[in-house]
Each structure stands twice: as structure tokens, then as C-alpha cells.
Specification:
about 110 residues, 4 helices, mainly alpha
């Protein structure tokens, strides 16, 4: 199944493998510039796609934003002026949580 629209120079003649769901450059025409370049190891390699876990991606996007919004609300609302110890306590608790999670991330990165 060749879905490439190759021209007279042999460019674009690779095969899209539907079973594996990736482009297979090894099926390109011999002598193609792209065939020899794709076999070299580089930053982008062809092969099976990695699945992304959306839960950690969403947590890493929205959790820091939520922590910032909560800290900003505590330090700029009427709670800070009426009962400052509550707003300061919430901000300190958030700071401790951030420092603990940062320490855990640093420790996990050092083990790698």
C-alpha cells in the first residue's frame, strides 16, 4: 500500500503502515535522500508512538495555577485584614507542600 505521491526523483515514496500506525521510511525507494537520512539516529526517530498519560499532564498544568490563585486570594482578600493568621497559615501550608513536592522531585531525579 503505497500512499506516497512520489515524483521522478523518488522523493515521497515511503509507505504508511496502517497496522503499526506509523510511517515506515525503510520502504522508501533506494537512493532517496530521505531514506539515508532517516536511518541516522537523531532527535526524532520513527517507530511506535508513545502514549501520553493525560492525568499527570493536566495536574502539572492546573495544580500550580490553583496554588497561585489560592495564595493570591488569601493575601489580597478581606480575610487577610480581618484574620491575618488564617491567610498566613494557608500560605505557609501551601509553601510547605510545594517544598515537599519539590524535594521529592529532586530526589527522584537524582536516583535516575
Amino acid at each position: 500500500m503505497n500512499y506516497g505521491h512520489g515524483n521522478q526523483y523518488g522523493y515521497g515514496t515511503g509507505v504508511y503502515n496502517h497496522a503499526a500506525n506509523y510511517y515506515d521510511p525503510s520502504q522508501e525507494a533506494c537512493g532517496s535522500t530521505f531514506a539515508s537520512a532517516s536511518r541516522s539516529k537523531g532527535l526524532f526517530q520513527h517507530g511506535r508512538r508513545r502514549r501520553l498519560n493525560m492525568v499527570p499532564i493536566l495536574i502539572s498544568l492546573f495544580l500550580p495555577w490553583a496554588v497561585f490563585c489560592l495564595a493570591l486570594t488569601m493575601m489580597s482578600s478581606q480575610i487577610r485584614f480581618k484574620q491575618p493568621w488564617i491567610s498566613l497559615l494557608v500560605v505557609i501550608i501551601l509553601l510547605v507542600i510545594v517544598l515537599v513536592l519539590g524535594g521529592m522531585a529532586f530526589g527522584a531525579a537524582r536516583k535516575k
